[in-house]
Design goal:
The structure is a single chain. It is built from 23 helices and 22 strands. It is of the alpha+beta class and 756 residues long. Strands 2-1-3-15-16 form a five-stranded mixed sheet, with helices on one face. Strands 5-4-20-19-18 form a five-stranded antiparallel sheet. Strands 6-13 form a two-stranded antiparallel ribbon. A hairpin with a 2-residue loop joins strand 15 and strand 16. Helix 11 runs antiparallel to helix 12, helix 16 crosses helix 19 and helix 17 packs across helix 22.
Length: 756
């Protein structure tokens, strides 16, 4: 006995036979075009059979793209992102009015016919013949659903979308065969549910749930009769019947739907009359798509999460595979972002740097021992308007940030010290460290070919009074340039390279730090705040470096089924011995106790850190940490065009900006709020043998705030040094939203550096 479909009608075989019988008469109507004669169709009956039979038997329905929700570490929403704003719901979560309205206006005989409505075809053919054009179509709701599947599968590819919607007999043949299959397999209720979830309702809303939220700020199950009629009317032409932009046209269309519902007996004439008098009653919720809508200033972190997803092979072997999963959506992404830390960072940035200032600030907080990014913010908001930017100053170029990062100045020097200690140099290592000296004639590199000072370049300390010999503690406190260059000459550059490699230190463009003395000691190379915060976190965790992570877990919903996705894990490895890390902690603890970092000192808990200011005061840094939190703050011009002298930042005038007086307080306030209520562990300090000349201001400045070389020791110029304390201005320029600051090609030319 022939198998019957759910909802009645003919079997698939009978449907096909019927189709072939009426194709001569109705093929043009099915295609949505009026053609005068059979010959114009370009198809013989035999050819139609072959085309029909050769089609694949099963319609592959891609999972419907849905919105993705990004959550913080506590489970609160940061933002929603989507390729298509859609929330899939079951039929019983859709108002009965909505179900009746869409059937009445789109396919009133939906429950009576099969995949193709032969009566509808003949009716449409007759109507079109009378009008001399195409005034009425004959696609059933099932056929429309199949067409929407083709469009969904095409995604955002305009060529594929055009192919999915082209008015050709071939497409209609495909559409019909798959419609027959869908009717056979799903039945009427499931088809209606799928249709209401896939179709476009305008205003970026896909599916009835998103449309109900967009236009009425309510769930689809709560739609009233006039509201349901309005949404059902939009489907035919979302732009023409858009109630937001043309209320009058939308009202007319709604009333047509109501009249049709009365005609087919879904509602009474009295109900229809009453509903037509009702106002549209819009309560529009504006689309909230993308990271630009993120709370607590977390837009940049949100974009970082997106870039992690699109770049990490754990989410797909190819870029295209990862993009497909991301655009499909339906993801719930729980991140590492700590709302307390994020709020503290944003509050501190807002207090100290105005978005309208000539310079910007960025801050990133990382948890030692886990690599979790707890906060990421900057003073200029995410956006495309005045005093806004889409660039994330906290991260490398590949993740949406600077092309080069920003020169770090003396915040690089702890890496040199750590490398020397790992090589067995004592913590009280002493060097002559004169006020002025030539760069070493040669310094060993990793490739065995030494760097040479062919031009006999010299360097100086900031003040003529800075004359050694100095021990490491003094040199770190005063940021003595000649000391660290002598230390580099002693151990060679390869130990520093190995140390920075172990700490994940790379330039903002992803390249390794160039092996030239200025990069290896004076911080002339552009790095990102995330790189610095993560590297310093290794000091805090007693030598264990953990790669940064932003994602804790991901759950994906596909077809009503939830599954967990694998996420990237932090990889932790030992970068240095515990003794070396403890020694660096002891040295850098002194910076915030009595050096230039005093303004960054935390109350009631131990902290350590290093200030840095670069050539012409274009960049100022403070990078510091407690045993349980590491953070980096950068202040400067993204274009590297602003010299921070005689400048007002956050309403405070600065004759000269130092790492201690601007980034330092930002770091202090951000860390204090982030750590409020948290435990306050102590460092494991080491004893430093005596012999220090003094233990005061880092740069010997009476104010305890000068950590810069006032431009005397700058970046990589003429083979790695400055000449006579002057720094040539780079001849190149950069667009407003690009960054510079790395050494040019790593060859020691045109870089920026700094001393303290």
């Amino acid at each position: 006995m022939p198998k019957k479909r759910s909802g009645g009608g003919l079997t698939a075989t009978q449907q096909a036979a019927q189709f072939l019988g009426v194709s001569v008469l109705a093929g043009a109507v099915l295609a949505g075009i009026a053609l005068p004669a059979f010959g114009a169709l370009g198809l013989a009956a035999k050819g139609s059979v072959e085309s029909f039979d050769e089609l694949p038997a099963n319609l592959k329905t891609p999972p419907l793209s849905q919105r993705t929700t990004i959550l913080d570490a506590k489970g609160d929403q940061i933002a929603t992102v989507y390729s298509r704003d859609r929330t899939v719901v079951d039929l019983d979560a859709i108002s009965p009015y909505m179900q009746k309205a869409i059937v009445a206006i789109e396919d009133s005989r939906f429950y009576e016919h099969g995949a193709v409505d032969l009566k509808g075809v003949l009716r449409a053919l007759n109507q079109n013949a009378q009008s001399g054009g195409v005034s009425q179509g004959a696609s059933t709701l099932t056929q429309q659903y199949v067409k929407n599947v083709f469009v969904e599968e095409a995604g955002d590819d305009p060529t594929k979308v055009a192919q999915a919607t082209q008015q050709t007999i071939g497409r209609k043949i495909r559409e019909l065969k798959y419609a027959i299959q869908v009717e056979e397999e799903l039945g009427k209720k499931k088809i209606l549910e799928n249709y209401l979830n896939i179709t476009f309702f305008g205003q970026q809303a896909y599916g009835v749930e998103a449309a109900s939220q967009r236009y009425f700020s309510k769930s689809a199950k709560d739609l009233t009769l006039p509201e349901a009629a309005l949404l059902a009317g939009i489907v035919q032409s979302p732009s023409r019947y858009d109630p937001v932009n043309d209320a009058a046209e939308a009202t007319k269309r709604r009333n047509v739907v109501l009249e049709r519902m009365a005609e087919v007996g879904d509602i009474s004439q009295a109900e229809a009359a009453e509903a037509t008098k009702a106002p549209l009653g819009l309560k529009v919720t504006q689309p909230k798509n993308g990271c630009i809508t993120a709370v607590q200033g977390a837009s940049f972190f949100c974009k970082y999460v997106e870039r992690v997803f699109l770049s990490d092979p754990v989410f797909g072997k190819t870029k295209e595979e990862r993009a497909k999963v991301w655009n499909q959506g339906g993801l719930t992404i729980q991140t590492t972002l700590d709302p307390q830390s994020q709020q503290s960072v944003q509050d501190s940035l807002k207090d100290h740097v105005y978005k309208s200032d000539k310079v910007a600030a960025a801050a990133t907080l990382v948890e030692p021992g886990t690599g979790k990014i707890l906060a990421m913010g900057q003073s200029k908001p995410y956006g495309y308007g005045k005093n806004e930017t889409e660039y994330n100053y906290s991260v490398d170029a590949a993740m949406g940030g600077s092309n080069f990062g920003f020169p770090t100045g003396s915040t690089f020097k702890p890496f040199v010290a750590a490398a020397a200690l790992e090589q067995g140099r004592p913590i009280n290592q002493s060097y002559a460290a004169p006020y002025e000296m030539p760069y070493p004639a040669s310094v060993q590199t990793c490739n065995g070919k030494p760097w040479t000072n062919a031009a006999n370049e010299k360097l100086e300390n900031e003040a003529e009074s800075e004359v050694g010999p100095y021990t490491l503690k003094e040199a770190m406190a005063k940021s003595v340039n000649t000391y660290f260059v002598q230390m580099l000459a002693d151990i060679g550059m390869c130990p520093v390279v190995k140390m920075t490699d172990a700490l994940g230190v790379v330039q903002g463009n992803g390249d390794k730090v160039p092996e030239v003395p200025s990069s290896m000691t004076l911080g002339s190379t552009g790095l990102s705040p995330l790189t610095m915060a993560t590297a310093y976190a290794a000091f805090a965790s007693r030598g264990m470096y953990c790669t940064p992570i932003a994602i804790e877990s991901i759950t994906q919903t596909v077809g009503g089924t939830k599954k967990s996705l694998e996420v990237p894990k932090s990889t932790c490895s030992r970068a240095m011995s515990e003794k070396t890390a403890d020694s660096i902690n002891t040295l850098l603890r002194g910076v915030v106790d009595s050096g230039t970092g005093q303004q960054a000192g935390l109350s009631g808990r131990e902290s350590a850190g290093k200030t840095g200011t670069t050539d012409e005061r274009k960049n100022a840094w403070f990078v510091g940490y407690t045993p349980n939190l590491s953070g980096a703050v950068w202040v400067g011009s993204a274009t590297q065009k602003v010299k921070m002298t005689n400048i007002t930042i956050g309403g405070v005038y600065h004759a000269q900006v130092y790492g201690g007086d601007t980034p330092g307080p930002i770091w202090r306030d951000a860390m204090s709020g982030a750590l409020q209520g948290k435990e306050a562990p102590n460092f494991n300090l080491v004893d430093i043998p005596g012999g220090d000349k003094d233990s005061g201001d880092e740069d010997g400045d009476d104010n305890g705030g000068n950590d810069d070389d006032q431009g005397l020791i700058a970046g990589l110029t003429n083979g790695g040094t400055t000449t006579g304390g002057t720094v040539p201005t780079p001849s190149y320029s950069f667009p407003e939203n690009l960054f510079q600051g790395q050494s040019n090609g790593g060859n020691g030319n045109n870089g920026n550096g700094g001393r303290g």
